[in-house]
Amino acid sequence: MSGVSMVWLRLAQFDIRLRYRNSTFGPFWITLNTAIFALSVGLLYAVLFKQPIREFIHHLATSVVLWQFLSGAIIEGSEILIGSHDLLLNTKISPASCIFRCVSKNIIILMHNVLIIFITLIIAYPNSGLNIPMFIVGTALLAAHAAWISTIVAIVSVRYRDVPLITAAVMQLLFMLSPIIWTAKVLPTSSPFLVYNPVAYIIDAARTPLMSDGTDYMSVLVSAIIAGAGSIAAYLLYRRTEHRIPYWL
User: Fold this and answer.
1) d(CA 48, CA 105)
2) Within 10 Å of residue 162's Cβ, how many Cβ atoms?
3) What is the C-alpha to C-alpha distance for residues 238 and 235, in angstroms, rounded to an integer?
4) 112-117 contacts, C-beta under 8 A, 24 or more apart
5) DSSP class of residue 130?
6) Dihedrals φ, ψ of 243, to 5°?
7) Residues 6 or more apart whose Cβ sits within 8 Å of residue 70
8) From residue 112, how far is each of 12, 54, 105, 107, 118 by CA, in Å?
9) Do 154 and 163 form a contact (C-beta atoms < 8 A)?
10) pLDDT in tens, the chain (249 residues)
11) d(CA 36, CA 63)
């Protein structure tokens, strides 16, 4: 990998070091907060939904970790070019490097938070590692979604400054409407909240390999199709607007 192509990765690592400078645990503070949330909310909702406690906490922990990565990359991505105003105007760094810097930083945080997933996996299903390879595939697709969606919202946000606020509101709405803090079992399989909700497929593609029901290959397929189509759309939009971004800033 050339030095130019690694600029965004070095910037992502610098962001992590700067954010947690002089911190004892660094990004693991996010891991600890996520673990506390999953445990406390998981205990409550397991009782409300009448679900086995260990399995539900694992479901919730996995869902929240994956969702935090996706929503964090998208919400932060919506403001990354605006926040990189001086860097883009005074250096030769490309807008794409700023976007990948944002996604890479969130991937680093995700790698720390995956620890929660595997701890709850061992507790919920101590005799089975389930489908780890498909979990890696689903997580890679999740990263692809974070990249293409962040690219689109970053570009549109430079042109229309209300988009970051809209993006945050939409992500909050999708969190409530998607099977993250609740399970798909509480709704009929034909429910529109499951059938027509792309987030349900995207999260399930990475989550179900670590659940007792097994990998949902339909979710993996749908997630891959959406990722492919979205990546093409993001690439075409970027190629069309790359030279205009400095003027919009």
Assistant:
1) 36
2) 9
3) 5
4) 112/27, 112/28, 112/30, 112/31, 113/30, 113/31, 113/34, 113/65, 113/68, 113/69, 114/65, 115/31, 116/31, 116/34, 116/35, 116/38, 116/61, 116/65, 117/58, 117/61, 117/62, 117/65, 117/210
5) -
6) -75, -15
7) 142, 145, 146, 202, 203
8) 14, 21, 11, 9, 11
9) no
10) 444 456 766 776 666 666 666 666 666 777 888 889 888 998 888 888 888 899 999 999 999 999 999 999 999 999 999 998 888 888 888 899 899 989 998 998 899 899 999 999 999 888 776 788 999 999 999 999 999 999 999 999 999 999 999 999 999 999 999 999 988 888 888 888 899 999 999 999 999 999 988 889 999 999 999 999 999 999 999 999 999 998 898
11) 14
DSSP structure class, residue 184: G
Residue written as token pair 């929240």 = 64
Encoded tokens for 100: 């990948």
Exposure on the CB side of residue 86, measured as CA atoms within 13 A: 0
Phi, psi of 150 (to 5 degrees): -60, -40
